[in-house]
Each structure stands twice: as structure tokens, then as C-alpha cells.
From TrEMBL, chain A:
Name of this chain's protein: ribose-phosphate diphosphokinase
Every Ribose-phosphate pyrophosphokinase N-terminal domain range: 6-122
Species annotation: Linderina pennispora
Pfam families: Pribosyl_synth, Pribosyltran_N
Single biological process term from Gene Ontology: purine nucleotide biosynthetic process
UniProtKB/TrEMBL annotation, chain B:
Keyword Kinase belongs to the record: yes
Keywords of this entry: Kinase, Nucleotide biosynthesis, Transferase
Lineage summary: Eukaryota, Fungi, Fungi incertae sedis, Zoopagomycota, Kickxellomycotina
Gene3D superfamilies: 3.40.50.2020
Superkingdom field: Eukaryota
Source organism (scientific name): Linderina pennispora
Family membership noted in the UniProt record: Belongs to the ribose-phosphate pyrophosphokinase family.
Domain Ribose-phosphate pyrophosphokinase N-terminal span(s) in chain numbering: 4-106
Pfam families in the cross-refs: Pribosyl_synth, Pribosyltran_N
Name of the protein in its database record: Phosphoribosyl pyrophosphokinase
GO cellular component, as recorded: cytoplasm; ribose phosphate diphosphokinase complex
Cited SMART domains: Pribosyltran_N
SUPFAM superfamilies to which the protein is assigned, alphabetical: PRTase-like
GO biological process, one term: purine nucleotide biosynthetic process
Amino acid sequence: MSSNSIRILAGNSHPALAKLIAKRLGTDLANVTVSKYSNQETAVTIGESVRDEDVFIIQSGCGEINDHLMELLIMINACKTASARRITAVLPCFPYARQDKKDKSRAPISAKLVANMLSVAGADHVITMDLHASQIQGFFDCPVDNLYGEPSVLRYIRENIPDWKNAIIVSPDAGGAKRATSIADHLDLDFALIHKERKKANEVSRMVLVGDVKDKVAILVDDMADTCGTLGLAAKTLMENGAAAVYAIVIHGVLSGKALKVINESVLTRVVVTNTIPHAEKKKLCPKLDTIDVSAVLAEAIRRTHNGESVSYLFQHAAI
Amino acid sequence: MKNIVVLTGSSHPKLAQRICDNLGIELSECKLGKFSNQETSVEIKNSVREKHVYIIQSGCGRVNDNVIELFILVQACLMGSAKRVTVVTPLFPYSRQSEKSQKKRLPQHQIGSEIMSSLTQQADGPSSLPQGTFAQSFMGMSIGEGGYRQWCARAGTLVANLLQAAGADHLIAMDLHDPQYQGFFEIPVDLIYAEPCIIQWIRTEIPNWRQAVVVSPDAGGAKRATSVCSKLNLDFALIHKEDLANTKESMGLVGEVAGRPVIVLDDMIDSGSTIYAIAVHGVFSGPALEIINKSPITQVACTNTVPQEEFRKLCPKLATIDISTMLAEIIRRTFNGESVSQLFVHDEQF
């Protein structure tokens, strides 16, 4: 019969992003209700037929992560039993991505567990953005598309940071150096690095700047901002070393715990996050917060996956 | 008992402690918590290498948190080279699968029925809404556009598969809602029953129990009730719930209960619409405790598969049947490789 169509299902983690994506694709969100029974178990009600359709389930690993993870798994399983043709899990922020190795005895590799759970539930394909370690793609047997927020970040810098041609890209730790150099190369700017010297475990004793930031606008780039302890200290170090202003751009703005307080009290001019994680409430409490909209990137990836076109265009160019 | 490690999740640590006291071993130290971004954090303090690990977690409280914590614990033991991982679930999460019970549990169903009754009152007026589409879209079993019947996803097989994918080798569950659930698993499943504990409680706590009648609150529980009856040599009765179209349920009693103490037996009390009960799993969500307090119940007894301390403070009619001895026995027997079936033949010592 006729070829199948895209169906977008959204969980409760980030309905605003799902609506934006659906709007870009020119469809409505599918009629699915996700709620809880009185004993706290998750209840998923499918309201329309998904038989032989190309289903995309949008759920981000944020907020009440365990609840949202169970919602995602149950939705995937429900679509599988409803005979969907292909089920793609779209996870703008991958849950448990930071527990990806056994760094001490008896530590679980929760990222591998999540990958197993998604496969067992019935996902045929996974789309995610800026995985903490791109090797996590290897945990899956099914195809994984790891999209990059970099083109959107580059566009933001060019359009919104005054005097960006005189800026310098700084990585707040050694692990993010590769990410920062890539951005610096694309913009043809200089690069610097902040090195944490740890005297005792869990106590950052000193931050050492490697590179010269005098009189330049410093742009800190990282993949995730959680408690923002590192960002706050890094900004302070940069100002002490003569930077003119400090911006921070991160892909996943988790901003938990005291993060907003740290940002408000720090010397940062602005903190920019993408909308992989909802933060509308946080913006009211922290005027320094700004947003990069990545719904276009995700919507384009979904469209190209459905049509069988190449997605690699999106790795270089920001979707409009 | 060498080479055994008993771990507990955060759902019911007191039960786990009692089980360990029964076994005469220490509960293994394990730090459970959440990271600042709400991800679950698990740290097992002692070595599990080449040991037989038992993980005790009940599907109560914040179910999704406890379920994910269980999976992460299983995975951590797998990564720590445990010889065998057995999961012990006093209350198995997401175990209720029947279509009918799920429709009733949905909040929409309750909203729909109120609107339905107000609609039928308005039906005669000139401003009445077209009953077809509007009313139908509110009932849980609605017909949407294009004749599609909305349905609720059942998570039972999924949870079974996830548990196996996480790395469990064996499952011990208590009084599963549907015993056929064992077939969803590739790994061996041991089902145990709280019946011996319940029978002992009846004999010790209910005065003149010999004249009592055991009643099943619905047709599905008849088998469970008759099993208890035959062991105690009591009479049996049944309550038949008729579901009329608009949720007014009429209850019909089949059997004689006049002038005798009545024991109503069920496997789970969740929303509390059944009264005067002994039940295995006392979940008590929603207005359950209020309903029990207001009703003509003498006493409600539940096992401690779900933590009961908070519930008992709110409802003085609540009593607890301790099943930790049962679980400890089954752990001891599976660990030693002994037969478990003796526990079900009969109940003197429990």
C-alpha cells in the first residue's frame, strides 16, 4: 500500500521540544497519554494506530530521570507490540551517559545498561546529541546517530557574541580539549585550556590556565553543565588572568543543585545552553541564561532518517 | 553460609534486615543514593567476586526509581564478577496485567464517569451535547477517530526482559498477581506464597476463627480463598461484582455469612474498594486508608512485602503479617541447593 509516515511520540520529559520538532516537520504529536497509576507505576495509553509506521519517540534524560526512562521503555515496547515498522528513540540528552566505565571496583556501567534496556524494549535506532563519550555508540547493536551541537554553537558565537573575532576558546578541563580545539579551528581563533590540580580527592585546589587570555573575550565550551562548580571557578581564573569578559556555552544544561546560585554570583557574563533539557523555569531565576534552539537539528535528522537521506550534512552545517 | 552476599535496594531495607537476621548473616554494605541530576547512584562496598548475590527489592513507593535501582544493582554485581545473581522481589513491579483492572486504575476513567453521569442528566435539555463522540472520548475504552480503540500498554513482559538483560540469573517472587508470569522469563523463577503465614495469623489473631467464613472479593480470587478454606476447614463464599456500563457496581454475595466472622482474602489492596481483608500486598495508594478507616471493617492485615510503618500510623485498623521468615527460608534453601517445595506442602512451623 502507501508508504508509511512519521509519527512523533513525546514523553513527559520535554514536551516543549517535542512540539517544536513536530512543528518543524509539519505534523502533530501523536495521541499518546503518559501518566501514573495511583501506585506510582507508569501508564502509557496509545491513542492512534501506529501499525507499520515510522515511530520516533522523543524523551530526554533529565528531571526525574528514572521515571522518564521507564516511560521511554514502556512506550517503545508498546509501539513494538502495536506492530510499528521501525521505532527510533530520540534522546537529546542521553541518561546515565557519565557512568560509562568501571572507574572503581563494583561500579556499574549504567550507560551500557541503558543501551541494553533500549534494545530489549525494541528500539531499532537511536538518535542522540553530543554523547558524553562518543564510544557509547559502541554499546549498542543497533545504529546510533550521534548528532553534534557544534554547528549551532558556531552560529551562535558568530551572531551573538560581540567582537567574537577577538575571542579565545577555552576548555574548562583537559577532557574537553578536543571539542574546544575543533570550535577554535572552525572560527579561526586561539585556544586555551584550564588544568585542575587536585591535591586531595574531590577538592579542586588550584586551576592553572594554559594559554594567554589577556584583553580577550573568553568563551568556555563544554558538553555538560551540572552543578557548575567547574565553570564558576574557571571563569574566576580567566578574569584573574586578564580576560575582558567570560561566556560559557554548553550543550546540555542540567543545572542541578546550586548551579543557578553559582552562575548568578560568578563573573560570567552569559551562560548559553541548548534546549536538549528544559530550562524555562530556570531562566526566570537566572537572567544570565540564554538558549540555543536545536529542535531544527533533531527535526532534520528525523526527516532524513525517514527519507533515507544522508545525515552527515548536519555534522557540518547548522540546520536553519 | 559462606560465599553469599545479600544486598538491598532502598525500597524496603527493614524487611531485608529481618531476612538477614533470620539467616544469621550481615546485610552487605551498599551506598544508595542519587546524583545531583537525579540519576541513581549505587556503590557496593564489599567484594562480590565469585559469590552468590541476593538482591532484595520490592516494587513499591517510587516504583520507577526502585526498578532502575534494581537493574543498576544487578548490573554492578555482574560487572563485579559475581557467580550468580538472584533477585528477590516481595512485590514484583508492574505485575498487574489484566485489561479490565488497568482500565479501572486510569484516572481518566473516574473523570469520565462523573462527566457521563452529568451528561445523562442533561440529556433531555436542548443544550445537550451530542453524546456520541464527546462521551466516548472520555471513557477509558474510547473509540477515537477512524474507529481506533485506545489501549493501555502492559509493561509486564518488558520488565521481565529488562531484568534478564540487566543480568539476573534467577528470580524469587512472592504471590505474583498472575502465576503465568513465570513463562515470560527465560531464567528460573521461584514463586512463593504467603499462605502459610496468613493461615498462622488467622489461627492466632482471629478469635473464634473456627466459625468464620472465608470470602473472596471477586471471581478471580476464588481459587486462593478455597485453598485457605480447605486448610483451615472453613466455609467459603464469593462476592460477585457486576460492572454496569456507568461504573455503578453492584455486589452480589454467593454463600452464607449471617452471624459469623468474615475473612475476606485478596492478593492486593491498592485503591481500597474492597473491605475487611487479609491481603498479601498492602500497597494502599490514593484514598485507600481513608476508605478503610470509614468502613465497618474490624481489621485489615497485610504482609510486609511493602513497608507498612507509615500506613499503620494513619490507620489503627491495620495489622502486619511478617513474611521475612518465609523469604529467609527460601534464600537458605536455594543457596544450599535444597528443595523448596516442602515450604508449600504445609504450614505447621510458620
